[in-house]
Amino acid sequence: MSGALLSTRGLSKRFDGLQAVTEVDFDLARGEVRALIGPNGAGKTTLVGMICGRVAPSAGTILFDGEDITGLPAHRRIRRGMAYTFQITSVFAGLSVHENVALAARRRLTGAVRVDAAVSEALARVGLSDRSEEEAGNLSYGHQRLLEIAMGLVQAPRLLILDEPTQGLSDGEIEGFKALIREVREQAAILLIEHNMHVVMELADRVTVLNFGTVLAEGTPAQIHENRAVQAAYLGTG
Amino acid sequence: MSIETRRVLALHGGLVALLIGLHFVLPAYHHGNLARIMVLASYAIGYNILFGYTGLLSLGHALFFAAGMYGMALTIQHAGFTPAPGLLSGIVAGALISGALALLALRTTGVAFMIVTLMFAQAGYLTILYFGEYTRGDEGFVIQTAQRVLWGIDLSDPANRYFAALSLFAICLGLSLWLVRAPFGRVLVAIRENEERVRMLGYDIYAHKLGAMVISGTMAAASGAVYGLLFGYAGASFASVQYSIFPLLWVLLGGAGTVLGPFIGTLFMFYLIDLSSGITSAYMLIAGVTLVALTLFAPQGLAGEVRRRIWKGLP
Ligand SMILES: Nc1ncnc2c1ncn2[C@@H]1O[C@H](COP(=O)(O)OP(=O)(O)OP(=O)(O)O)[C@@H](O)[C@H]1O
Ligand SMILES: [Mg+2]
Fold this sequence. Notes:
Radius of gyration of chain A: 18 Å
Radius of gyration of chain B: 19 Å
Shape of chain B: globular
Strand content of chain A: 25-35%
Distance between the termini of chain A: 42 Å
Largest interface: A-B, 25 and 17 residues
CATH topology of the largest domain in chain A: Rossmann fold
Number of domains of chain B: 1
Helix content of chain A: 25-40%
Largest sheet of chain A: 6 strands, mixed
Distance between the termini of chain B: 16 Å
Number of helices of chain A: 9
Bound molecules: adenosine-5'-triphosphate, magnesium ion
CATH superfamily of the largest domain in chain A: P-loop containing nucleotide triphosphate hydrolases
Oligomer: heterodimer
Number of strands of chain A: 10
Number of domains of chain A: 2
Number of helices of chain B: 14
């Protein structure tokens, strides 16, 4: 199939009285790494929430792989190949690290052997292999973020949505994360909400800037870096 | 087979073996008690699947217990069924009613879910009273010894009764153990822990809760049907609120979300009341104080404490 993997048209969300997202037209190509940036409260989490089905849009349509998914419940969108990691880490705190990832894996894999292999691979990719039997709630915040990413990876998604994945990671872990995304992009398109501009500049093919719920600019990292409006709104250097 | 799996099988199989052994040594009084406890524990095991593993607190399980009991007793009494089809109709009645209630109640969560299940169970209780002509209401009716012969086995005989109760218990225990280690059961636990996360892993929450409620309700119904058959009586009190609260207490005491907890809790509470009522007429006070102490010092229940302190992998 040709065309975009993901498209939104006129996507809007109103929380009683507050217009969080306004008429967003957004296209994401297959294999693309797209960064979504914008000031706090710009509507980034709300926008991806509508895309993956956590938030019901007030208006607009969402196409995934050419099909209208606007009316589908979240779990059916995930089954079509989206994976979502939460901005506020949302792992199963009382379960082991292994079981957290296994739950994500079992949706598409059957048989303990295959599941265990996929879990081991995902944990190795994020560098948590030696933590596999620990209770997830006991992990540091940064490690919980990595666990979230492992839970996303093990689903073998076509579109991986990451909401501020590097928040709380150490510099070394951020380097590891960048290397990981360069690998993952071979298999999946990535939509990355990110505040760390170094990460955005290095990883993204294109950047979309959201401000007050509307798309302020879109372009390559270099173009965005040069864009005066973006600097004024976001980088604070205008 | 992993070492962990072997230990789990040894523990739960060991309990069943112990219960077989107890048949030969227990005095008649305790032997009869244990038969009753095993049936009630099966009811609690069913309750635990919904409450302990899925995290849904129902206050209406007496509806399912009674559906099984009356599905069995009414067909035997009025349709001339023999025990085997009688049991089957009790189980089917429980499955249908728990499925129907799930369709309605699962639209709600939390306190609303508790209230909806409570209201429907109360409606069930009133229905039994309303059709007093057939059910004989609160007074209930006796199932004659002659009507309780299953495949040539007289279930009113204490030894037969004990082994029938043990069979039910072993089946429920085994099913529960298998379920919570199977992928479906793992998802139930995950729903209890963090429902929104499970949804965003692509699982259909509603379908899983529906499945849990039907399995739970059907086990409760099987227990109700067997109870009526073994003890030869069906009465509306088994559909009352009290019988919805009992499994909650048993499971909390024994350890919610543990496979052995329901049995331990039922055994403990049965003998707590039995022993304290032998000492004083204020036995409910003793029982109450013990329960409060347990919730203070073992908030996860008895088996829950074992899991917390000794064996983390206890299913
Ligand atoms: N469930 C909700 N109910 C009401 N208002 C909400 C809700 N969720 C988000 N909002 C509001 O919508 C706006 C956009 O929020 P959103 O979380 O999408 O921003 P964001 O760009 O992800 O911000 P951040 O960078 O801080 O994560 C904010 O003003 C927020 O307060
Ligand atoms: Mg956000």
